[in-house]
Write a structure and sequence with these properties.
With 360 residues, the protein is α/β, with parallel strands linked by helices. The chain has one domain (4-345): Thiolase/Chalcone synthase (Peroxisomal Thiolase, Chain A, domain 1, 3-Layer(aba) Sandwich). The protein has helices at 19-26, 32-36, 51-66, 90-98, 115-128, 205-208, 210-227, 245-254, 258-261, 267-270, 277-288, 316-320, 327-332, 339-345; strands spanning 4-11, 15-18, 41-43, 73-79, 105-109, 134-142, 159-167, 173-181, 236-238, 294-301, 305-313, 335-336. The strands form two sheets. Strands 5-4-6-7-1-8-11-10-9 form a nine-stranded mixed β-sheet, sandwiched between helices. A three-stranded mixed β-sheet has the order 3-2-12. Helix 4 (90-98) links the parallel strand 4 and strand 5 (105-109). The longest helix has 18 residues, at 210-227. The radius of gyration is 19 Å and the shape is globular.
């Protein structure tokens, strides 16, 4: 393929909460699991943040870094499982927020945690077919807003957004190959009319990760078979990281080496960012990657299949590598909050719509 990533942008909440702070309220998980699952801190969305605002912030950064004029962006695909709208396309709001042309194709893609990867490859297909010159792709989620208090997922349920500008003109990484695997499996899911996510089988252990390997392993093997590549042909991998156990399970089943995966697992620093999770790991890799490196991506959407794909970094990466706003800088820029503040900001203390006053 000639299509590649021209630029990328990242947005994560500044506010964070520690696992210990959550545990002090619920005491519903043995603290020994914190180290085992790489649980430490996760993001807290502020009252001014949601999936859409994070997505717009990441997209604005990606466009600024790209040097691509807004009028040359022919499509925007917004990948998320937690859009603030049930039916309205969030992508149309992004069009107005960023001043993109009104003739831009704007649509949402919903495939759970892999929504961003699916959106990326759909956009790449449009570019390869000559339908558009450039495309903007966003993977964003606010898993924290959709996790009920007291559920063990609350320890990692986080938020974030990653955006990519795609095109053929001097990409920093070309899209090399793609493979997919999907079948119906009730891993984490959220039904119509419900705010909160339901777990398919729990949080820890082989059973809790049952949907992961059933999708990731066939998708990963399909990518290797399709390309004729072997695991050792890749320098780095961005893999599912809802907890720190998932990367280990993925490594073991696909014969990946520790240093291909673990340095790019960000669970302990930001938690589970949903559709932005694996893409955030990819952005972290690109922040320090070198020309010629082949990078693998395994993006599992709970109960929605897995996208396996690869990119190859180009010489343009050296000249256009971001000099500020790196993922490590965003992770270090944080404000810690307590549990009560988290409940308030994530709007889990619901008030009656019929209140006559703020004072009683």
């Amino acid at each position: 393929m000639e299509t590649g990533i021209i630029s990328y942008g990242v947005a994560i909440p500044r506010r964070r909460i520690t696992a210990q702070e959550i545990w002090d309220t619920w005491k519903n998980l043995a603290t020994s699991f914190f180290d085992l699952l790489s649980i430490s801190e996760r993001g807290v969305t502020g009252p001014e943040e949601d999936t859409l605002t994070l997505g717009v912030a990441a997209a604005r950064q990606a466009i600024e870094r790209s040097g691509v004029a807004p009028e040359r962006i022919g499509a925007i695909l917004f990948g998320s499982g937690t859009s603030p709208y049930a039916t309205k396309a969030a992508a149309t709001v992004v069009v107005d927020a960023l001043g993109l042309p009104n003739h831009t194709l704007a649509t949402d893609i919903q495939c759970a945690d892999k929504s961003g990867s699916t959106a990326l490859w759909l956009a790449a297909g449009m570019i390869e077919a000559g339908l558009v010159e450039n495309a903007l792709v966003i993977g964003a989620d606010t898993i924290n807003r959709h996790t009920p208090p007291g559920m063990v997922l609350e320890y990692v349920a986080s938020a974030g957004a990653v955006a990519f500008v795609l095109g053929k003109e001097k990409p920093i990484a070309t899209l090399e190959a793609w493979a997919s695997h999907s079948h119906d499996q009730n891993d984490y899911f959220r039904v119509e009319g419900e705010r909160y996510i339901q777990p398919g089988a729990g949080f820890y252990g082989w059973v809790a990760n049952w949907g992961l390997l059933d999708h990731v392993v066939p998708a990963g093997k399909a990518l290797f078979e399709k390309t004729g590549l072997r695991p050792e042909d890749f320098s780095k991998f961005a893999v599912p990281q809802k907890t720190g156990l998932r990367p280990l399970m993925t490594m073991g089943q696909l014969n990946l080496e520790m240093m291909q995966v673990l340095p790019y697992v960000l669970t302990s620093q930001i938690g589970d960012c949903g559709a932005a999770g694996v893409l955030l790991s990819l952005a972290h890799i690109l922040d320090f990657a070198e020309p010629g490196e082949r990078i693998g991506v395994l993006d599992y959407g709970a109960g929605a299949g897995c996208e396996a794909w690869s990119i190859v970094c180009t010489d343009a990466l050296e000249q256009r590598r971001p000099q500020q706003g790196l993922v490590v800088e965003l992770l270090d820029d944080k404000i810690m909050v307590d549990y009560a503040t988290m409940l308030k900001y994530e709007q889990k203390l619901l008030q009656s719509p019929h209140r006559l006053s703020n004072f009683y």
